[in-house]
Amino acid sequence: MPGVQTCALPISINMYADDTVLYFTSLCSLEINKVVQDTLNRVVKSIECNKLILNHSKTKTILFGSWQNLPKSPNFCIQLHGNILEKVRKFSYLGVFLDKTLSWKDHIEYVSSKVSSRLGLPSWIRACLTLEASKQVYNSLMQPPFDYADAAWGEISKGCCKELQRLQNRAARIILGRKTSKNAFLLLNWLSLACKRKLHKCSLVFKCLNNLLPKYLTEYFIRNKAFHDYGTRRSNNLHPPKPKTNMGKRTFKYAGIIHFNFLPAHIKTAPCFSNSKVC
């Protein structure tokens, strides 16, 4: 961001290509409103000094929180040049839909719609393809929406899990030409979507512990032995945070640790991560 010293700002800024997100965390919505507004004013001033323009129509605001706390902040608003920016219930960032309570229901609807629209293709051409070719079509068109960024949104409700799993079951029936998906995953050598989400989280935690990812992620995880000198069986386990809400328990920082700690010791300490023995 030209002319803006991001390290001196009180909030965090994420930039990817022409997408920029400013975010700030606090228990007080009034503090969030003030800090974000002051920072936006500084950013706008810097942008205008560089002869650039901030697109008002594409600039949105969203306040994240629980269903209990959001109604307590009806007056939250951010202004740009005296005009109130649109406050949205959800928005898409880098292909992932975030709603104001981070329930991920909107993203699940988006993934379901995307996969459903593509399931017609394998059913139309199945008679012309071998089993392996049909599996490649599935892996190319249907599996990527299921997998994309699932380490972030993967801790979803049972209803959302069932909605996604029904689509994968349907794909298995189409590929095998069956009316039932019983034993289909065994024949196709597939993992269930829930198992794949768990696998992706554990793989990401493993990369963090081996410094294969940016520092801001590797700092998420600390082993129990850093807090005491006792040689217990769980001293090499990761020390989980203590979230006070269910929203906190759905985060990668917490869920990733819980899943990783349940892995056998030989997988957690292996030089490379084994996908086949996690689920």
Strand-helix topology:
Blueprint: E1 12-16, E2 19-23, H1 29-49, E3 60-61, E4 79-80, E5 83-84, E6 86-87, E7 90-93, E8 96-99, H2 105-118, H3 120-125, H4 131-141, H5 143-147, H6 150-153, H7 158-176, H8 184-188, H9 193-209, H10 215-218, H11 246-249, H12 252-261, H13 265-268
Parallel strand pairs: 3-6
Antiparallel strand pairs: 1-2, 4-5, 7-8
Helix pairs in contact: 2-7, 9-12
Question: Can you walk through the features of this model?
Answer:
Helix 2 (105-118) runs parallel beside helix 7 (158-176) and helix 9 (193-209) crosses helix 12. The chain is mainly alpha-helical and 279 residues long. It contains 13 helices and eight strands. The model has no long low-confidence stretch (mean pLDDT 89). The protein is 44% helix and 9% strand. The two termini are 43 Å apart. The strands form four sheets. It has a two-stranded antiparallel sheet with strand order 1-2. Strands 3-6 form a two-stranded parallel sheet. Strand 4 and strand 5 form a beta hairpin.
Number of helices: 13
Q: Into which percentage range does the β-strand content fall?
A: 5-15%
**What is the oligomeric state here?**
single chain
Report Rg: 23 Å
Q: Helical residue percent?
A: 40-55%
Task: Please supply descriptive tags for the structure shown above.
44% helix; two-stranded antiparallel sheet; 9% strand; 279 residues; mainly alpha; two-stranded parallel sheet; 13 helices; 8 strands
Can you give me a brief rundown of this structure?
This protein has 279 residues and is mainly alpha-helical. Helix content is 44%, strand content 9%.
